[in-house]
Amino acid sequence: MFEQIDLKKHQLDAKRPLSKYTVQSLREKLFLEWTYNSNAIEGNTLTINETKVVLEGITVGGKTMREHLEVINHRDAISYVEDIVRKEEPFSEWQIKNLHRLVLKGIDDGYAGVYRDQQVFISGAIHTPPPPFKIQEQMDALMSWYDGEAQNLHPIVRGAMLHAIFVGIHPFIDGNGRTSRLLLNLELMKSGYPPIIIRVENRLAYYNALDKAHTTEDYTDFVELVAKEVEASLDLYLSAV
């Protein structure tokens, strides 16, 4: 599955270091699309151009404060992901909580970075997340998996499964989807891949692949969906250099 992707990654690595201006332009493009699509999947009604305007510090009329905060918070969370990658910090549960704290900052400060104390359900999904008293146990299992078995997996598989397992636990009241996509890209970026975009127009396939993973423990469809987007991001970078 990954031969072609690995070849393109090797081709991109061979061209490093990339031009400073090319890197900055690609970064701005991908991070705008990442923020727009990740929020749109969760129901944010800002268009991609409105998202760009909000990122530039301008208020869009007719949109809620929450929608503005979701954009600003996501930008800050991406910056935190970049810091982790730059500093080569080992993955930790503390990072997950910090990412979530940034995602919900000013939106629901009481639950920002705090595991839920209520049962939740995922709209349209067959899978039901665990009850609150099992969250810590399952998060501990996730971290043990990451530190052990996951290290033998291809980075794309590891990132996809990290996303899927985490969002299946659904440890927070709100913001799990955004946090899971940040975790996916954190894992990819740590391995030298550009960030990927799960596009809002692919939302149904994305949800179906996740629900299949959660109900059957078959992650194939979700890994393939992620791999396709990894290749698209690599193609974008290669076209620019």
Question: Which features would summarize this protein structure in a list?
Answer:
Fido, single chain, 10 helices, Fido-like_dom_sf, 241 residues, Fic family protein, globular, nucleotide-binding, Fic-like fold, ATP binding, 0% strand, mainly alpha
Describe this structure in words.
GO terms for molecular function: ATP binding. It comes from Psychrobacillus vulpis. This is Fic family protein. Helix 2 (20-41) packs across helix 3 (48-55), helix 7 (155-169) crosses helix 10 (220-240) and helix 9 (203-216) crosses helix 10. By secondary structure, the protein is mostly helical. The mean pLDDT is 97. It has helices at 3-14, 20-41, 48-55, 65-87, 93-103, 135-147, 155-169, 176-190, 203-216, 220-240. The longest helix is centred in the first third of the chain and has 23 residues, at 65-87. It contains ten helices and no strands. The protein starts with a helix and ends with a helix. It has one domain: Fido-like domain (Fic-like fold), CATH 1.10.3290. It is 64% helix and 0% strand.
